[in-house]
Amino acid sequence: MRTARLGDLTVSAQGLGCMGMSEFYGATDWDQSIATIHRALDLGVTFLDTADIYGAGHNEVLVGRAIAHRRDEVQLATKFGVDRTGGDANRRVRGTHDYVKRSAEASLLRLGTDHIDLYYLHRPAQDAEIEETVGAMAELVHEGKVRYLGLSETNNDLLRRACAVHPIAAVQSEYSLWTRDVENDALDAMREHAVSLVPYSPLGRGFLTGTIDVQNLGAGDFRGRNPRFAGDAARQNQAIADTVRKIAEARGAAPAQVAIAWVYAQQDRLGVPVAAIPGTKRVKWLEQNVAAMDVTLTNDELAILDPLAAQVAGTRY
């Protein structure tokens, strides 16, 4: 496994998004998820991503239990800020000083660790300016409870203001061959301040893998309500998945591997280090995703894949 630098933090160049092990993508299985995390560590995938809202804290507990005896192998990332206590219809993103400090203490307890390697603000706060939020996060660094700071789904202005308070190691954003918003939203400031990119959903929430039956996602799978997975948009977007599949078949790879390889092929153009965090809760998909690190796309293949984002139907949420 290659490594990547998020500021001064060295992580495995491919990480593991753990969200689906607790919520949002249908049925979950504790033992299967633990086995997947252990297999990830064995394969050198040591950059693990969670958040306090995933399963209302369940995911942090799960990840913490999984790494309890292997903590020194892991670069552990979690996120705070999204408050679901009023129900999902009334979500708030919070970032006041005291909320930040309480959130970190609660995450440390659930994770069973004395420090978080990378601590993200999950979304721009609605109740505090970025200077207050990052200032409180910086206090956590000075206290030794957090090593490095990140922002998730931010923009150029907020990132520049955050960096004026404390160095930001990484921006986590949805990024794939069908979602490239960060290139316009935050990339300029990322380059200016040497901030790395952590792409989540590099597989288009599974759509690009060709393994998703959008007609039978189940009540517990939020993709059934996602605009890109529904109705005419899903039918139009199928052409994108078909293009990825054709390239994969021609080179004897899986569509997921082509989609992940596309993300890494963007590093030179983006001008920032990249460490993607494809999510899965099953060992077989983890192993497939890791094998994508050995796939290098040709210029001809990239010329076919690069324009696909312009064809996407439906918004991200």
Give descriptors for this structure:
317 residues; alpha/beta; two-stranded antiparallel sheet; 12 helices; 15% strand
Protein model, in words:
This protein is α/β, with parallel strands linked by helices and 317 residues long. It has helices at 30-42, 58-66, 97-111, 130-142, 156-165, 182-185, 187-192, 231-251, 255-265, 267-270, 283-291, 299-305, and strands at residues 3-6, 9-12, 16-17, 47-49, 75-80, 82-83, 92-93, 116-121, 146-152, 170-174, 196-200. It has a seven-stranded parallel β-sheet with strand order 3-4-5-8-9-10-11, covered by helices on one side. A two-stranded antiparallel ribbon has the order 1-2. Strand 4, helix 2 (58-66) and strand 5 (75-80) form a beta-alpha-beta unit.
The CA-CA distance between the termini, in Å, is 32 Å
Major beta-sheet overview: 7 strands, parallel
The parts where pLDDT drops under 50 for at least 5 residues are none
Query: What structural class should be given to the helix and strand makeup?
Result: alpha/beta
Order of helices and strands: EEEHEHEEEHEHEHEHHEHHHHH
Strand order of the largest sheet: 3-4-5-8-9-10-11
Strand content: 5-15%
- Helix content bin: 25-40%
- How many beta strands in the DSSP annotation? 11
Radius of gyration: 19 Å
Tell me the number of helical segments per DSSP (H or I, 4 or more residues long).
12
Mean pLDDT: 95
What would you call the shape? globular
